[in-house]
Amino acid sequence: MTLERNRTLSQIFKNMATIYKYRGGDDRFKSIAYGKVAKVINALQEDISEYKKNNSLEDLPGVGEGIAQKIEEYLKTGKIEKYESLKKSSPNELLEMIDITGFGAQSLKQIHEDLNISTKKELVKALQEGSIRKLKGFGDKKVENMLRGLKLHKEIEDRMLLSDALEIGEQILKWIKEIPNVKKVELAGSLRRKKETIGDFDVLLTCDEKDRKSVIDSITISAFAKKVILKGNTKISIIHKNSDRQIDFRIVNEDEWGAALQYFTGSKEHNIHLRKIAKDKGYKISEYGIYSTDTEKKIAGKTEEEIYSTLGFQFIPPEMREDLGEIELASKHLIPKIIQFEDLKGDLQIHTLDSDGVNTLEEIVNHIKSHFSYEYIVITDHSKSLRIANGMDEDKILKQIEAIQLMNKKLGEEFVKSGIEVEILKNGDLDISDQVLSKLDWVTASIHTNFNQDNTERIIRACENPFVHCIGHPTGRLIGEREPYEINFEKVIEASKRTKTVLEINGQPNRLDLNDKLAMLAQKAGVKLVISSDSHSLANLNYIKLGVFVAQRAWCTKESILNSKSWAEIKKFTKFHSKVMSTIIL
After folding, report:
1. How far apart are CA 451 and CA 348, in angstroms?
2. What would the DSSP string read from start to end of 296-324?
3. Using CA atoms, how far apart are residues 76 and 65, in angstroms rounded to an integer?
4. Could you count the other beta carbons within 10 Å of the beta carbon of residue 506?
5. Do residues 70 and 91 make contact, with C-beta atoms less than 8 angstroms apart?
6. What is the CATH number of the domain that holds 425?
7. For a designed S-S bond to 495, which of 366, 400, 452, 463 qualifies (C-beta 3.0 to 4.6 A apart)?
8. 221-239 burial, b if ≥16 CB within 10 A, otherwise e?
9. Total domain count, the chain
């Protein structure tokens, strides 16, 4: 069943939240309300119309009488008059930039009102020509921050998040598999390597020679093809209607499949290195196969495994093919068995309706029990300082612990673990007392404020707390929106290793933090990592797989990932952390 109506309505409410945020004043409370409802609707597992039929719209979190009426209006007419009215009085193109570092609601409002700027193009021109510098409060430093923010945002304009690309990639595969006479189809390029952002799509497919024309015609005349750029016998390029992204299709023979898949997966650097080694060994590699330089006889090409084994190499997983030493390891048959999703025994960061999640504890447990094979999960709602996320104080935390105990009693097993995502304050203190933290099974400490400072010592102080087990999304970056805050990561690694504090690979699509490079450094240093979904809805629970992809690109084995262990092993590790820190403090 499609949930497209939910997504459309969610986007309308998200846009309304942005407009109210821009307007400011008392409207900021409306912004928070509509933003929450947008998340709730987007996370629903049923079409929103089902809640109208059952007269249960107001049972949804954050949906009161006023918003329920707007939902009914949308279901009846396909639009919301209040939203249409708000759009007419707002610089909507500017509002797309409201969350970019250096901008924000007040800055955009001042630029719009003082300079009569309403489009992104006009804003960029004003920044480049210097007219914005004449505004009060827009000094050189602020303007430079805005220019950096634009540059950062351009990455997402030119490319897309891995999560979005994977969703579109699945749609492409489904479409091509339905075309008669297609024998094999596979995504290649940076998407197959699971890079955190993706540009265009590379798709490899096979069919018999006699069927090529019909397959090519099926692709180019499909409703999915908004525009045909190139139509050849071996390559077709189109603009995908649903995403406006270019898709390059390569049609190869079955005996060329492995060579082509290896070639078009890349990376460029990996392939150049591989071909140099092949040349030194008397071979030539192309997208058609491996050939003897002397005889020009084709030796292999049907499978990727053949390509690597012919050169004397162990097979290299696509996620590792970035020319970072994987070829040298493969030559010695030392490629590690990298972590797989199936290795994970639990998710260590999940948010509920008690803070800024959109589902109850019971809903989360029921969903996970039906869709995952975890041995445990940890509930980690936000703590009290993060008011925008409805953070919990000590009393609410203690009540949640009781609710978790009741849930486990109902389940007949200790499946749900009590936790918190505790806020690391500006000076490195935590906003929840040690007395309460000591009662929790798992404590993740994170930074959500004061990004414009060096946060190294702030994180180190959190590591040194006996009750903190993990540092959440350690660099604070948001892909395309916010750069990492300043930290000395080498010092953070040293502190993590010394205190036995775990670092998180956060699977949220716009975080993926730690990234692959930093996760690789941490693993090499012997620091334990966890992979978490940081879920705020049932759909978000699958984000943990994105974290796995980061870990794979970082060459992480399951020995380095703490939540590939049983809960008994995790408790042993956390007790060791507490003992180490208690000894240091004493």
Report:
1. 24
2. --EEE-SSHHHHHHHTT-----GGG-SSS
3. 16
4. 28
5. no
6. 3.20.20.140
7. 463
8. ebebbeeeeeeeeeebbbb
9. 4
Question: If you ran DSSP here, which 8-state letter would residue 134 be given?
Answer: G
378 φ/ψ angles, rounded to the nearest 5 degrees:
-125, 130
**pLDDT surpassing 60 at residue 312:** yes
Give the pLDDT confidence score for residue 574 in this predicted structure.
87
Residue finishing a domain among 202, 225, 252: 252
Q: What is the C-alpha to C-alpha distance for residues 75 and 72, in angstroms, rounded to an integer?
A: 5
Query: Do 432 and 305 share a domain, yes or no?
Result: no
Which two structure tokens, joined as six digits, stand for 456? 């190294």
Max alpha carbon distance in the chain (Å)? 79
Residues 482-524: tens digit of each pLDDT: 899 999 999 999 999 999 999 999 999 999 999 999 999 999 9
pLDDT in tens, 176-197: 999 999 999 999 999 999 999 9
Last residue of a domain, one of 252, 267, 302: 252
Nearest-angstrom CA–CA distance, 68 and 56? 9
Contacts of 443 (CB under 8 A, 6+ apart): 419, 420, 422, 437, 467, 468, 469, 470
- Go through the chain and tell me how many residues it has: 586
Residue 198 is part of a domain; what is its CATH number? 3.30.460.10
Q: Are 221 and 215 in contact (CB under 8 A)?
A: no
pLDDT band with cut points at 50, 70 and 90 for residue 364: very high
Residues 6+ apart with CB under 8 A from 20: 27, 28, 30, 31, 34, 86
How many other C-beta atoms can be found within 10 angstroms of the C-beta atom of residue 296? 8
User: Any idea what the CATH number is for the domain that residue 262 is in?
Assistant: 3.30.210.10
CA distances to 284, 286, 427 from 251, rounded to whole Å, are 21, 15, 59
State the pLDDT at residue 1.
41
pLDDT band at 580 (very low <50, low <70, confident <90, very high): low
Q: What is the CA radius of gyration of the chain?
A: 26
Does residue 291 lie in a domain region? yes
**Measuring CA to CA, how many Å separate 454 from each of 51, 70, 445?**
48, 45, 17
Give the domain extent around 32: 4-158
Same domain? For 539 and 451 the reply is yes
Sheet containing strand 502-506, edge to edge, reads 346-350, 376-379, 416-423, 442-446, 470-471, 502-506, 529-532
How many other C-beta atoms can be found within 10 angstroms of the C-beta atom of residue 35? 20
pLDDT higher than threshold 70 for residue 577: no
In a domain, 306, yes or no: yes
Match 């459309």 to its residue by tokens. 8
Assess whether 113 and 181 both reside in one domain: no
Token look-up 């846009």 returns 15
The pLDDT score that the predictor gives to residue 494 is 97
